[in-house]
Amino acid sequence: MPNKCLLKIKGLTVIQHLIRRVKKSKLADVIVLCTTKLKEDDVLYKIAKKEEIKCFRGSVADKLERWMGAAEKFDVEFFVTADGDDIFCEPTLIDLAFKQYMKRNPDFIYGDGVRGVDVPCGAFTYAIKTKALKKVCEIKGTKDTEMMWVYFKNTGLFDCQKLTGVQAYYKRPEIRMTLDYIEDFEFFKNVIENLSKEKKDFYLKDIINYLDRHPEVIKINQGLQNKFRDNQKKEIKLVLIKEYNGLISKNKKG
Predict the structure, then answer these.
(1) What is the pTM of this model?
(2) Which of 80, 116, 138, 172 has the fewest CB atoms lying closer than 10 Å?
(3) Looking at the domain assignment, is residue 254 inside a domain?
(4) How confident is residue 250, by pLDDT bands cut at 50, 70 and 90?
(5) What is the pLDDT of residue 229?
């Protein structure tokens, strides 16, 4: 969906809905919107300024380089990512990741239904230690890093952990909460417009309660999850610089 982060629901753009959810984290010290230097992304810089968060503009093609630039600029030791299309990224799960880092010092934490913990796809993405990200930026052999998790999980160089402490109530992998298709937009529109009538601020538990009362809403985009996973698998690749190709014996396709 072109320009999906600028689509509007109840007068706010998708990216504004996401920013306001992330702001509910109790442990985040700084929130940074990472985007590119392209003229067309000026609008995202303006939204970040309006929402009173930081903005970093970096590489057009390389997501990891953008993150690295933001981490260096704002002196970040460890961060949780929230993809721009994951409108219901859950602040309580973000804070779980921060707590896990403080207790167990991982390099990389993963947590959605596609990658291991069975929370709804889009409720939590990744958490990353900046030192580990710097190492990945040194060894990767491409700027195409959209499917970046393989550089952490498939190289054997990093301490990668599943998100721990997730309540059983949140483990609902059949619920899809990410924005790629028109059906996804209809799902988010339904939940936001209806649930906001009941609660000004709602969390993942409230969303799940609403969906359990309205199972037909889950079905709006549920059938797209396999298509989504298949498309992701096609994009997964591990490309390393020559010095590391001979040292890492993992499947280079992930």
Answers:
(1) 0.89
(2) 138
(3) no
(4) very low
(5) 67
Q: Euclidean distance between the first and final Cα of the chain, in Å?
A: 26
* Residue 14: closest CA among 63, 82, 79: 82
Q: Please indicate, yes or no, if residue 46 is contained in any of the structural domains.
A: yes
What total of structural domains would you count in the chain?
1
Domain housing 125: 4-241
247 in any annotated domain: no
The pLDDT confidence band at residue 94, using thresholds 50, 70 and 90, is very high
Whether the pLDDT of residue 246 is over 80: the answer is no
Q: Measured between alpha carbons, how far is residue 37 from residues 58, 66, 142 in Å? A: 6, 10, 19
User: Is residue 128 included in any domain, yes or no?
Assistant: yes
- If one counts every other C-beta atom within 10 angstroms of the C-beta of residue 223, the result is 10
> Residue 166 is part of a domain; what is its CATH number?
3.90.550.10
